[in-house]
Amino acid sequence: MKKVHDLLSERRCFVGRKDELALMADHLSRKNESWGILHVHGPAGMGKTALLQQFALMNGSIPSIYVKANPAFADPEQFEQAVRRRLAQLAVGEDGPSAGMSLADTLNHVAGKHGGLMLLLDGLSEWTDIGYWLREEWLLTLSTDILVFSAGRQPLISWQTLDSWAHLIRNIPLGPLPKADWIRYAAAHGITDLKTIDLIGRVSEGVPLAINLVCQDIRSRGGKWRPETDKRSLLDMFDRVILHPDNLSGVNRLLLDLASLVYTFDHEMLEYILGETIPTAEFQLLCQSSFVRVNPEGGWTVSNGIRRWAKEGLKRRSPEAYAQYKLRAEQILERRTAAAASSANEVQQEMRSGKMFLHDNDIIHGYIYYDDGLHLAGRPARREDIPLLREMYLKHIVAYPENLPDTSHQEQYLTDVWNVDPSVIHVFEDEGRLAGFYAALPLDDPRFRELLDRNPATRAFSACTPPEPCDWLYWLIASDPPLDQGFAGQVLRDMLQNKLPGNRITMMMPSVEFTEAAKLVGFREVPEAFCPSDDGCSFYFFQLDARQRTAGNPDPKEASEMWMEIAKTLLASFKQLELREPVLHQCQRIWGTHYSLSQLVRYVQNTIISEWRRLEHGSPKERKMARILYYAYMQKIGTHEVVAERLGLPSSTYYRYLSKLIREIARALQYYRGV
C-alpha cells in the first residue's frame, strides 16, 4: 500500500545542483582515514533541505537517517530521541535499537551490516546548545562507516578553528540556481512561455524556495500571469515567508533593510544612512549571518534575492523612510566618490561606487550587479559556430518581454560579418558548451560600413553616423539559456568598465523595456536610427560617448599616429614584449584595463596573431601582408631587405605593404576587444 509520504516524494520536483551532488557523491565514497563532515550552508530558502533529501533519494540503496529540529535541539536527549524515531522507521530488518545498546552502537551496527549509513543533520550550524556535546562526545563514538552530511545557515567555522576538526570539515556554500535550472523547474510545472519564465527569474532571483512559490502561484491562477499585480503580491509573500523573524536568527531587520539599499556596505555607511550609532555586536551579527557575504572589492553585500525582497519590503512598509534612507545613501556615496582620486569616467565611477545601484531598476540591478559566479571562457567565433549562433539568436530574440520575432532576420548577416573579421564576434563557452555571444563592430571600417548600409535594420543608423575612430556598434547579443543574467551582466560590465573609456558605444536594442535602464546608465537615444516593424520586434539605438571624457584623449589623427608608433614598437619586440613594459602600460591606461604584465603580453601577442590569421585568409594583397608579418616580426628572419628578397618583392612595393600592415596592426591594438 502506497503511503502519502511516498506520493509526495514521487511528486517533488528537484533540478540543478549537479556540482554539489557530485561533491556529496565523492564524500559518500570516502571512509576510514578520509572520514569527515560535508556541510552545505546558505540563507533560508536556498534549498538545503531539498538537497539533502534528494541525495538520500538518489542513493536509496544505502540506509539514511535524516534529522531536523524546529526549534533547534536544546539538549542531547532531544537529539537522540529524534535519531531513534528516524531509526525506527528504517526498513532494515532486525537492526532497530536493541535493549542496552547505546544509540551510537546501534548506528554502528546498522552501518557495518549494510556497508554504510548516511546521517543527514539538517540545521547543524544552528544547534548551538548541543554543538559541543555533538562534536566532542557523540560524533567521536561513530564508526567511519557512517558518512555525515549536514546543512545550516552558517558554515561550521567554529568547528574548523579547532585543530582536531579543521581537516574534517568541508563547507559548501549554496547560492541561487542558474537560469538553465529554474527553466527546467518551471517546465516541470507546465510553464514554458519565455516571457513568463523571464519574469519568474526577475522576481525569484534564482532562489529555490522563491521559484517554487512563484510556480505554485502561477499554477493556482490557471497559468495566467498579471505582471504588476502578481509581482507585488509575490514580493510581499517572499518578505513574509523567507524573511520571517524565525529565519533571521536574531539579525536586526532594519539593518538588513538598510544594507539592501546599497550594493556594498560597511559599519560607517549603515550608521550614516540610519543617522544613529549601531552597536558593534548588532553589525557583526548582520555580517556573520547567512544573508550577507564578503565582497571581493571591499565591504559586505546582501545576497541576491534577499537584498531585493528586504529593500522592497522597506519601500512598501515605510515609503517616506525609504526615500530618506536612500537620499542619505546617495550622500555618503557622493562624498566617498569625491574623496577618492580616480581616472575613471563618470559611468565607471557610478558603477564602482555603487551609486548606479540606487536606481530602482530591475535591469540595472540584474545585468550590472548580478553575479552568480558564472565563469565563461571567451574566444573569437569559428566558422562552424555560425549555424549554432544563428539558432541561439532566434531563440533569444523571442524571449524579450515584447516576445516578437525578428522579421529582419539579423542572424543572416552573421556569416558576412565573420567573413570580414571573425574576431568581432565574441563567443563564450561554459564547460565546452556554447553559452552566448556578442558582436561589436568598429564603425570606421569600410568593410563593415558596407554591411550596415545593406542591412535594413542598421541602414538608418549608418546614414546618420559618419565613420569615426573609437566608435563601436554592439550589434547582436544572445545567450543559451535566453536572457541569461550572468552572461549579459558579464558582457555589460566588460563593455562599461573596459571598452567604454576613450570610445563611443552604440547598443542596438530589440526591446523598449531596456531603454529606461540604458538612459539611467547615461546612454542617449539616436531617434533617427530607430528601425520600426509592423510584424516583429523594432530596433532602438542608444549611444554613450566617452571619447571626450578621458583625460588627454588625442584627436583622431593624433590617435592614429600614436598607435602607429606603438604598433611599430611592439611588433619589433614581438618575441620579447615584456621588455616593452612602459609601452604596454601606456596601452593599458588607454584601454582602461587592469591586466598584469604577463596578461598584457599575452593580449598583444594574441591580437597580432589573430590579425595574421585574418590576413592569411584574405585577398592576395592581405596574404602578402601576412607573410611580411610572419617573416619580419613573428619569426624575424632578418632585416626588411632580407624579408623583401625572400618574398620576391621590389623594395617600394614591400614598404607600401609594410606601411599598410602596421596600420592594420595599430587599428587592431587600438580597438581593445577584451578577449
Automatic annotation (TrEMBL):
Domain named Orc1-like AAA ATPase: residues: 14-125
Coiled-coil blocks: none
Pfam families from the UniProt entry: AAA_16
InterPro entries hit by this protein: AAA_16, Acyl_CoA_acyltransferase, P-loop_NTPase
Protein name: Phosphate regulon transcriptional regulatory protein PhoB
Biological source species: Thermobacillus xylanilyticus
Gene giving rise to this polypeptide: txxe 3934 -phoB
